[in-house]
Amino acid sequence: MAGRYFVIALSIFFSFSGYAQQIIDKDTYEAKNGMVFRVGDEITLGNGSNFNQNFKYVTGQDLGEGIGVSYRDKKLKIKSIKARGSNKIGKTNYLVVGSGFRTFWVDIEGAIEFNEVIVPDEFKAKKTDGLHPTFSIADELSKLKDLFDEGVLTKEEFEALKKKLLDRGYN
Q: What residue stretch is flagged as signal peptide (predicted)?
């Protein structure tokens, strides 16, 4: 039984992905990078990521119908925030945006990752040289301590994981 909890602790320990994307309420969405989008805000399109410079993650009303390169640098107003899919196959979060009478669906996580939406520098992924962590050591130590306090980890497991974390963070 302790082995199972140790595996759970390890999976938590090695999940340094930062923020989880989420629809906060029907008018607000927080992306993985921490950027918050609200109905009424504007987004600016970047460059299409398809081989022909068209957009892959910004589509017309019929999902899958990418839009063309002519939309580069366009400002679009967020009309609504929607999730499509199911718990079984997974959900994708979309910003429904518009320009005049046209409506587009933006798979916001994909659009951010592939620069189809312009993101302020403070929310851009930090590049790492492999020597410095891109996660907070203090946060990860706190998670381990919580698992230890809850009895999920033994003292030995806690110390071993703590040492691994500290060695990885400073080496």
A: 1-20
Per-position DSSP letters for 156-170, written without gaps between them: HHHHHHHHHHHHHHH
Domains in the chain: boundaries: 2-14+135-165, 22-123
What's the start-to-end Cα distance of the chain, in Å? 32
Distance, in Å, from the CA atom of 96 to the CA atom of 101, rounded to the nearest integer, reads 13
pTM of the model: 0.60
* CATH no. for 22-123: 2.30.30
Checking DSSP bridges between strand 58-59 and strand 75-86, what pairing results, if any? unpaired
Strand order in the sheet with 102-107: 42-44, 75-86, 90-99, 102-107, 58-59
Give the helix, strand, coil percentages of the chain, each rounded to 5.
Answer: 30, 25, 40
Q: How far is CA 28 from the centre of its chain?
A: 15
Distance CA 156, CA 138 (A): 19
Cα 114 to Cα 110: distance, rounded to the nearest angstrom = 6
pLDDT by residue (tens digit) across 103-152? 899 999 889 989 999 988 777 766 555 555 555 677 788 888 888 888 88
| Nearest in space to 138 (alpha carbons), one of 166, 158, 157 | 166
